[in-house]
């Protein structure tokens, strides 16, 4: 049996399994079972963990932008009494 024939046979078997056993796809007890509170908690956690890296990257970008403005003299330093860095001559 050639490699192509084995791959094709595996693909056909997988396709038949998916078509004949659709309820097996809903077997995840976390996604389709449990109380409504549990599903809401999983959804909230998913949203939180998806937004966290975006917020961190945005916060870092904002910090760099503010720092560049301070260095170029476009804004007052954030801390009171802080002197801007001396220009490079």
Question: What does this protein structure show overall?
Answer:
The chain is mainly α. The chain has a domain at 28-72. 66% of the residues lie in helices and 0% in strands. The protein is built from three helices and no strands. It has helices at 3-20, 29-32, 36-72. It is elongated and about 75 Å long. The termini are far apart.
Topology:
Elements lengths: L2 H18 L8 H4 L3 H37 L17
User: How many beta-strand elements?
Assistant: 0
Q: Mind describing the biggest β-sheet?
A: none
Number of helical elements: 3
Task: Quote the distance from N terminus to C terminus.
Answer: 76 Å
How does the overall form come out from the CA principal axes?
Answer: elongated
Order of secondary-structure elements: HHH
Helix content: 55-70%
Rg over alpha carbons? 28 Å
The secondary structure category is: mainly alpha
Strand content: under 5%
Arithmetic mean of pLDDT: 80
Give a quick summary of the entry:
By secondary structure, the protein is mainly α.
Question: What tags apply to this protein structure?
Answer:
89 residues; mainly alpha; 3 helices; 66% helix
